[in-house]
DNA sequence: CCATTTTGTGAATATTTTTGCACTACAAGC
DNA sequence: GCTTGTAGTGCAAAAATATTCACAAAATGG
């Protein structure tokens, strides 16, 4: 439905550009922008968008916060032992599928991203798997070597 | 105080090892472990620990989630107004790899999904990267233009 | 088309979370 | 020893949020 899509977009913008502290507040702001909606619907919208109320220094605030972000944080917790996180590297089409020890995928994906290698266009990580997309002209052996370096 | 430090530790463990959906539930679990506390105090403890209730696939769950996760790296800190979330758009095979500012990938992916464009079959998002699969007969320039519109 | 299912919504309500207030325990300074 | 100040807490109430129910609009499938 056009109506709701528009509303969700408005919500995203409001969340990004200002500190919203409660759903009622958001209801009012949306109304000012022409989106009339009840708090009940807003609750559902926010759930859809994975926008949650989170604690900050001084109060509460609505922002994106979801499982995938938390995984990233958990990683940084226990980097105690230096066991290699990479378990396997396999290819399929222009995809690289990297299996890691549980919890390390997000961290590895981040490291790969930060290397800005010309071989890799981007990554997405779960708890123990990284999907990386290779550049079309990249060589698999080169990529495998490159990724293996992240011990 | 010794008492509270111990309790906070118990809370962390419970949060990490099991799905806790409400503060009352947590009160009960803590009681089982010997920590007797009211829900009110728990609310304060969770705030202190930056543990929030976040939306997941099927329901809600308590977990670490906070500003530091989203603003962890580079820029998203001092965003004042309307900076475009999209950083780059690249192609490989039938994939589009879209890099965004940290935290915005999920929202963008959602917006792309909701547009129901005939050009895009589906998306998957991490924290700062969206993978979108193009229809086999879609033109790259068309797709690039289409995605660029999501400012 | 029509019947059926799915989806989006508001109103009211249930549930959950936060907070104001009062009280206690403990600490520091006199 | 007193006073004063500061945390930590429970209780109760307020505030905020999620969900149930009912219904309408839209999609789906004959």
CATH structural class of the largest domain in chain A: Mainly Alpha
H-E order of chain A = HHHEEHEEHEEH
Q: Which range does the strand content of chain A fall in? A: 15-25%
Secondary-structure content class of chain A = alpha+beta
The count of domains of chain A is 2
How many individual β-strands of chain A? Answer: 6
What integer value in Å does the Rg of chain A equal?
20 Å
CATH homolog superfamily of the largest domain in chain A: Winged helix-like DNA-binding domain superfamily/Winged helix DNA-binding domain
- What is the CATH T-level topology of the largest domain in chain A? Arc Repressor Mutant, subunit A
Unreliable spans of chain A are 68-82
Helix content of chain A: 40-55%
Counting H and I runs of at least 4 residues, what is the number of helices of chain A? 6
Give the quaternary arrangement of the chains: homodimer
Q: Strands of the biggest beta sheet of chain A: in what spatial order?
A: 3-4-6-5
Largest interface: A-B, 45 and 44 residues
Task: Compute the average pLDDT of chain A.
Answer: 75
The second-level CATH architecture of the largest domain in chain A is Orthogonal Bundle
Q: Write down the overall geometry of chain A.
A: elongated
């Amino acid at each position: 439905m056009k109506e709701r899509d528009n509303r969700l977009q408005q919500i995203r913008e409001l969340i990004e550009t200002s500190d919203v502290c409660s759903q009622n507040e958001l209801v009012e702001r949306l109304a000012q922008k022409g989106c009339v909606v009840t708090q009940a619907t807003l609750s559902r919208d926010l759930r859809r968008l994975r926008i949650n109320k989170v604690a900050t220094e001084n109060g509460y605030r609505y922002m994106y916060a979801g499982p995938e972000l938390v995984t990233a944080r958990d990683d940084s917790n226990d980097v105690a032992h230096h066991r290699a996180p990479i378990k396997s590297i396999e290819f399929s089409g222009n995809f690289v599928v990297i299996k890691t020890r549980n919890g390390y995928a997000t961290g590895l994906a981040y490291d790969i991203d930060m290397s800005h290698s010309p071989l890799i266009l981007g990554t997405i990580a779960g708890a123990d798997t990284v999907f990386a997309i290779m550049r079309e002209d990249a060589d698999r052996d080169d990529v495998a070597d490159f990724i293996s370096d992240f011990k």
